[in-house]
Amino acid sequence: MNNSFSFSSIVHLGKIDFLIIGIYFLFVLGIGFYLKRFAKTSESFFMANREMTAWIAGLAFLSANLGSLELMGWAAASYQYGILTVHWFWIGGVPAMIFLSLVMMPFYYISKTHSVPGYLRLRFGEGSRALSAFSFAFMTVLMSGINMYSMALVMKVVLGWDIHFSIWVSSLTVAAYTVLGGLFSAIFNEVLQFMLIWFGALLIPILGLTEAGGWSGMVAKIHKNWGSADFTHAWAPLGNFTDNPMGINWVGIVFGVGAVVAMGYWTTDFLVVQRVLTAKDLRSAKMAPLIGATFKMFVPFIVILPGLLALAVLPEKLVGEDVALATGAHSYNEVLPLMLARYCGPGLLGLGITALLAGFMSGMAGNISAFSTVWTYDIYQPFFKKTASDSHYVAIGRWSTLIGVLISIGTAYLVMQFHSIMDYVQALFSFFIAPLFATVILGMLWKRATKEGGFWGLLCGIGSSVGMWAWVKIDPRALAYIAISPNAKDMAENMYRALWSFLICFSVTVIISWLTPRRTDKELVGLVRGCTIIPSEGDYPLLYRPTFWAVVIALIFIILNIIFW
Fold first, then answer.
1. Span 464-485, mean pLDDT?
2. In 3D, which of 499, 501, 506, 559 has the Cα closest to residue 254?
């Protein structure tokens, strides 16, 4: 352990560290070359032949989300806002995953759609499909920039490597194995990366808690360093906007995070839904999100604890990205690499950096493979070439994968304009994910929703969210109306903007649907609850039923929230 760590020091890799990283790069490329033989048809390249087990689909489902956004972004956010960020994992993950499993997965799976925009085409027509596909493709390449930027930060802070060299080497590696093996390669690498992330990322919490004197010692040091600010309680300080570092109250958390952003992300973001759609049967497709939810509850121990430990042990306070660029100080976004450099020596440093590289590649591969599928099936095929050979669409998928990587490199520089990685991400979610969730959930659960209602509701939801964001940028006083408090921070503004855009999309869809003719029940078979026969779980033993495990997970979820109240 290096207790005299200085921010100005540069940690250099030893031979063992280079060996660990080199083996990892060779291994992921080897998986891509090996799986190329299994990715020759569009169904195999884009959907992995729909033959994954529940465990593989479930781990890939979570790993696609457990990228550098989770590792870097939430470490930064927990340094800014404390343990409040745990809500994006618990109330912002577990209920949505259970809802996806029990309520929405049957419709995605029975309809045999290749994507979420593909479901909207079946339910609402080409207009809604096009709008959601273009917005998703735009969001995906922007999100990929996060992984680029995060990886470059690791190499800059920990190793002193050139930022451009770091971006290109890792990006082209991801492009290579995804172009070769398609979703097959992405999924198997994501499972490998899931294991590496856990083994590597656990180093900081274990060594950090040892230095801080356990949980109680860490809490005492945080209070000493930061005075009365409450960084270590999840629910207690949410009664008033001014009682917590985020400037938010429980309404924003429960409804903004839990009921809108999380539900929207985990049930409609094709980046994660695509993994579940590869399951071999409906039971496996329903179990996969529940397996993901189980691990999701414990992810905060490897991504939030580093930020809390930084509040306790780092000798210098970190600042926002704009201040860091102006003064040369370290920013919130550099919390994780700084903590890695603090604790890890030869061997451990190589393992830790490999874990971060795995997170970077996992997140980017997830975005790129989803982008490739949506571009090929929902943009290129319907709008450019409706009829072509199967091999032609596979070729387009490979080219769009490479082009998506190149575009993502450009978007990496946009991330630098935000104070925190997570502020950037949550802004994107409020633009696209929150209104999309309103459209999809109405389409699945309300027979009366019409083609016109779905399209105009989604358009108004996206437009209103972008409009509210621009309003605050032009006139900061608007924050008092959008976030219900002039003291709200960026994260709180994002949550309330997501809530309003969801409600606007929902309301417009309902109103227009009542004014326009609906489709018959026969036309909605396989698409809407009430028109579709959902296979019963009654034939399975209790321990094999998704509903049983959903109840068990819900009980653990409640206990964790009580413990960290």
1. 85
2. 499
